[in-house]
């Protein structure tokens, strides 16, 4: 009898480990997160707070699927061609913050997470905004340059590709910026660190494709919008949450 009781306890423990009773639901904040100042930027049901960059509505090539924001190939476009579907969370600009966002890449996918976005008429979302790369590292056409792989500060500092899950699996990216100091984490591991508005930053810009971008030459903003990129591929985003520091 004692052996049977022990076996039952072991089985119950294994089941609890495999199926936690209190697993956090997508697009929901825990009591602890709320206490620590986290806020959701996406409720899992609609695009409240979001709109097209330099626009007024959500682009046609975005939809809600299984509690995630999904961007897909725009009508009449080829893969790699955006359909004007870059979006921003337009209700608030952020300066010092910690942003956490889950993303999942479709096959060959390429996209990006922007912060400090300046909305300038006639200019693209990446005109003066740092970008953290979202990519299918295995199959994307833009996977030949280390600093173009997922989690990287795009075209400036390469992230460790071993921290990134493959296409079809969720990743969690955390971007933390405080007094100019930035750290990027992928799936719980810090992969990139840098400091804005320093000689180091100016050198990174000078050695990147952004050296001739007027917005980067003027200097990136110290407060701006959070943005997501339409690059003509399928990508999902969920659990978009932020806290001000």
Task: Explain what you see.
By secondary structure, the protein is an alpha+beta fold. The protein is 14% helix and 33% strand. The protein has helices at residues 2-18, 31-35, 199-206, 214-218, and strands at 39-40, 50-52, 62-65, 68-71, 87-94, 97-105, 110-117, 131-135, 170-178, 181-186, 189-195, 224-228, 235-244. Strands 1, 3, 4, 6, 9, 10, 11 and 13 form an eight-stranded antiparallel beta sheet that branches. A five-stranded antiparallel beta sheet has the order 2-5-12-7-8, with no helix packed on it. A hairpin with a 2-residue loop joins strand 10 (181-186) and strand 11 (189-195).
Structure keywords:
single chain, 245 residues, alpha+beta, 4 helices
Task: Summarize this structure briefly.
The chain has 245 residues and is of the alpha+beta class. Helices cover 14% and strands 33% of the residues.
How does the SSE layout of this entry go?
Layout: H1 2-18, H2 31-35, E1 39-40, E2 50-52, E3 62-65, E4 68-71, E5 87-94, E6 97-105, E7 110-117, E8 131-135, E9 170-178, E10 181-186, E11 189-195, H3 199-206, H4 214-218, E12 224-228, E13 235-244
Antiparallel strand pairs: 1-13, 2-5, 3-4, 4-13, 5-12, 6-9, 6-13, 7-8, 7-12, 9-10, 10-11
């Amino acid at each position: 009898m004692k052996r049977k009781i022990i076996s039952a306890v072991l089985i119950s423990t294994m089941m609890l480990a495999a199926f936690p009773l209190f697993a956090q639901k997508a697009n929901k904040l825990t009591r602890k997160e709320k206490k620590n100042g986290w806020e959701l930027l996406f409720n899992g049901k609609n695009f409240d707070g979001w709109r097209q960059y330099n626009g007024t509505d959500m682009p046609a090539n975005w939809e809600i699927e299984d509690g995630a924001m999904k961007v897909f190939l725009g009508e009449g476009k080829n893969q790699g061609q955006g359909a004007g579907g870059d979006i921003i969370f337009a209700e608030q600009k952020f300066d010092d913050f910690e942003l956490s966002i889950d993303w999942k890449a479709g096959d060959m996918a390429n996209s990006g997470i922007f912060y400090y976005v300046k909305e300038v008429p006639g200019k693209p979302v990446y005109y003066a905004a740092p970008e953290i790369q979202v990519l299918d590292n295995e199959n994307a056409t833009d996977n030949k340059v280390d600093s173009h792989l997922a989690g990287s500060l795009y075209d400036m500092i390469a992230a460790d590709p071993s921290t990134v899950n493959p296409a079809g699996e969720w990743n969690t990216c955390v971007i933390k910026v405080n007094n100019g100091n930035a750290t990027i984490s992928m799936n719980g591991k810090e992969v990139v660190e840098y400091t804005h508005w320093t000689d180091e930053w100016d050198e990174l810009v000078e050695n990147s494709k952004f050296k001739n971008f007027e917005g980067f030459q003027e200097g990136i903003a110290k407060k701006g919008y959070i943005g997501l990129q339409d690059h003509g591929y399928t990508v999902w985003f969920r659990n978009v949450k932020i806290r001000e520091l």
